[in-house]
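Please, structure for the following, as tokens.
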Amino acid sequence: MYQRENNELSVSGVSIGYTRSGNGTGEIFSNISASAGKGELVALFGKNGIGKSTLLRSIIRLQKPLKGKVFLSGKEISEYPPNELARKVSFVSTEPVKVNNMGVRDMVAFGRFPYTNWMGRMGAKDSLLIERAISMVGLNSLAHKNINNISDGERQRVMIARTLAQDTPVIVLDEPTAFLDLPNKYEIVHLLGRLASENNKTVVFSTHDLNIAIQEADKVWLMLDDKLIEGAPEDLVLDRSFGQIFSDSKLTFNDDKGEFRIAKSPSAEIALEGEGKEYFWTSKALERLEFKVVNDPNIPMKVVIDKKEGEKKWKLLTNQNQISFDSLYCLCSYLKSLKLS
């Protein structure tokens, strides 16, 4: 059986938490083992407060694990001198950027400091990598601006560009899409995926956007209440691991559609006839109204999707009559009124 070897980053038996002054340790998660290979984009997912940020900080030596070991390129991370470690792993935090009177290009240039001489002098290669990083995250038009005069989302792009300029084999990002709108969230994660695959880098990022992780990540590290499991996102869908994340709430994970939804108890059955994307979205709309969609011609209430000459209509058939609707909004409004009457 095939097993991947030579992982660029691996975590073995790690417990994370904080050392309390004079009062022992405060462990928040224990016995973590996981790995990430070259060319892989790895998404770390779990509910709020479970320890995602603490795990990432422990991985990159910003804080010491309470137990266990972290290996980078086959070498325990604690054995790297600081300057050598800065050439091996880079980090983007969720903490707001707090600097004054600094230009965007200057902030990105900080990523090259581990490679400069004692005077901090940069060469042609450094300048090339800085400009490439700025271009990769779409900041060319802002490169001349002061970092205080751009939005939170743009600042997050600056910090990602700084990390790209650092050009390390391992990149770790804590919620890199936290301040971005939906299109930019996808663009940044897609960029990180291309960076991993095209440049053979190992990229690990934490996220709350499971849909993005499922679509873009090669592997997911999934933090449940009592363990961390890892695998391709599709593996974790098929073995129903995602459904365990919020087992103590009304939120459920639909394995067929790959999405979280509030658990609802259907109040009535309704038949649906149609095909294609219209069938899919009509089904979702009916489920939102707490109908159970079934394929049974004997059900007294039925929706038929009628597509003719580029026009769409939804027909509601009952024992009493037939009503036609031009949109799902009109159909849903009518069904809602029936439930309230």
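The chain is about 30% helix and 30% strand. The mean pLDDT is 87.
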